[in-house]
Design goal:
- The complex is a heterodimer of chains A (176) and B (199).
- Chain A has 176 residues and is an all-alpha fold.
- In chain A, 67% of the residues lie in helices and 0% in strands.
- In chain A, helix 2 crosses helix 5 (77-95) and helix 7 crosses helix 8 (149-166).
- Chain B has two domains: 1-77 and 162-199, no CATH class; 84-157, no CATH class.
- Helices cover 69% and strands 3% of the residues of chain B.
- Chain B is built from eight helices and two strands.
- Chain B starts with 14 loop residues before the first helix and ends in a 7-residue tail after the last helix.
- The model of chain B has no long low-confidence stretch (mean pLDDT 94).
- Classes of the chains: A mainly alpha (176), B mainly alpha (199).
Amino acid sequence: MEKLQEPKKYMNPYLAGFLLGLTMIAAFYFSGRGLGASGAIKSSVTAIVSAVAPEHANNSEFYSSYKGEGSSPLNSWLVFEMIGFIFGALISGYIGGRIKKDIVKPPKVKVNTRMIMALIGGIVAGIGATLGRGCTSGAGLTGMSNLSVAGFISFMAMFGGAFMFSFFLRKYWINR
Amino acid sequence: MGPLIQQGIINPEWNSIIAFVIGISFGFILEQAGFSTARKIVGVFYGYDMTVLRVFLTAVVTASIGLLYFNYLGWIDLDLIYINPTFIWSAIVGGVLVGLGMIVGGYCPGTSFAAAAIGKIDGIVFIGGLFIGVFFYGETYNWLFKDLHEAGNLGAITMYNLLGISSGALEFFFILFAILLFWMTIVITKKFSNKLLKY
């Protein structure tokens, strides 16, 4: 019976890339802007800080820049896009039979270690995506699609950086 | 003629709905391609799975050709689209930090949402980290990051502006560069596939 629940295979990477490219073109054609992910987190953090400490948020140069005009910081293109993103990933996961409570980790790594690594990775990536004006999606993918210099620098820094540090983490991921 | 919102052809009130629909497509494709597991993301850097790089480059080639073609046909005015501004130092340092976060945590911001959506706890924890990271950045911005954030501003410059060539010529060289990288992914996969580097 196990066989029936086996997840379906992933999409061909070149087909997925082509469809992702078309999605990017649609974003530019309709809204004049590309895809992104970390921008939604910046808006959410700004919204939380504004709700908890409105004075503090108003006085901060950083949060003010994400507040937008008048309405809530959550009323932003990237926030709506990321809500759609979660739905899209859910639909795909459902079709592929991959929705399951799970922790992705190398076999010999303890759950707690994996959780701490995921948390630290998130913190570092969060700082990096804010400093670098976007993550792999917004700065890399979108930035290269419109052929901006920033996009090419970001792509090389992100993939080059990860490749550079992968050497030090080889014992963790592939155990050698 | 696009972009439809900027040109006033579609009422701006529709922008959030468009964003939502485009997001569905974005999330669906990333999950379908397997970006919802750290295994795939990390695979690129240890040579056992080149999916991420292949999807990424195919998407960029498709989108950049498409945008130039739409512009050529007069379907989109490239002067009205958002071009990412180039701040050299923050792009380099920020990019390297995103890369470090990616290899430590196994995700980047977008892919962690794909992972979280299908129930991966490590993806949810990574997102928690992202919130902490952005909050830390916001709180320390004035005295820690501001100078670096604003340094080396070249404005919203494109590669063809920078090199002083036509956008078509730049695209041609970019496609050659992409083909070289595709070829590299094939060579690397062949080299590592029999070496039991997978986990």
